Amino acid sequence: MMDALDILCPMHMRTDGTGMIVHLGPTARKVFPHSLGRHLLDLFECLRPASATDMPGLRTLSKRRLRLRHRQSGETFRGVLAPLPDGGLILKLAFGIQLVEDIRSHGLTSADFEPTDLTVEMLYLLEAKTAAMDASRSLNQRLQVARISAETQAFTDTLTGLANRRALDHVLSRMGAVQRNFSLVQLDLDLFKQVNDTHGHGAGDHVLQEVARRLLSETRDEDTVARVGGDEFTLIFDGLLDQARLSDLASRLIAALEVPITFGTVTCQISASIGIARSCDYSGYRIDQMIEEADRALYASKRAGRAQFAFAHTLSGIEG
C-alpha cells in the first residue's frame, strides 16, 4: 500500500493514531527532512480551517482543503487529509503560490511529482520560458553589442580610429546647443603628398596613423580630434580660449608632427600648418563662420611658409 502511495502521491506523509509521523513519501523526505517521529501538529500550523489544534480536530477535516504553514521554514502548503483504519492519517501535500521558489529551494525536478500532477506541466512551461528568456537576453545582448559597434563605426575614422566628420558635427552641434566656449583648430599636413608619391599609399596610411597617435598624445581626454579629409584634421578644445596657451599648443603639435616617421626602411618627413578660431571672438554662436575663418587662417599659414599657425581673429576682414 505504501509503495503505491509513494508512486501516486510522492509528497505525502502518514501518521499513527497519536499524530506521530511514521512514513514520508520520496518527495516529502526531500522537502521535510528529519520529520519522522515528529508530531504532525508540531511540524505544521493549520491556517485554514484554523480550528484544528489536536488529532480529533484534524480527523474532522478529512477530505477538506487545508492550508498549512511549516513552523520552521514558514513555507505554506495546500493539503488534504484521509483517515486510516488504525486511527492514523494520510496527509497529501502540494505547493502553494510560491511553487517556483519552493521547487528551486528544495532542488526538485519533474521526477519528484506524480506523472499526472499539473506541476509537471508547469515545470515544463517554466523550463521553456526560462530557455526562451535566456535566448531573448542573449539576442538582446548581441543586438546591443551590434548597435554599439555600428554607432562606433559610424562616428569613427576606420584608418586612424579618430572621430570622423559625422562625429565632429555632433560635437559642434552639442557645443552650440549649450552655448559652450571652445577653440576650433584646423590642421593640414605639409609634405604628405610627397610621402604618398615617393613611398606609396602604405607609407601614407602608416603616417596618418602615427599622426593620429601624436595628436591624441598632445591633447586632453575632453578634447576632440577628428580626421575630416585625406590629410586634414579638426581639433576642438573645450573651454580653452587663452591665446598664449593655444599658441604653445599649436607649436607643440607642429613640433610633434615634424619628428620623422619610420616606415620599414624609409623615413617619412612631414609637418603641419594650423588655423585657429575661438568662439569668444564672434558675436553670437557662429560655428560655420568659425570653420570658414579657421580654414582661412590655415591657408594663411601655408602661404607664409608652412609649419606655422595663425589665429582667425588676427586676419583682416574677420568680424568679431
From TrEMBL:
It is an enzyme of class 3 (hydrolase). Pfam families: GGDEF. CDD domains: GGDEF. This is Cyclic di-GMP phosphodiesterase Gmr. The gene is gmr. Keywords: Hydrolase. InterPro entries: DGC-Regulatory_Protein, GGDEF_dom, HNOB_dom_associated_sf, Nucleotide_cyclase, Rev_trsase/Diguanyl_cyclase. GO terms for molecular function: cyclic-guanylate-specific phosphodiesterase activity. Its EC number is 3.1.4.52.
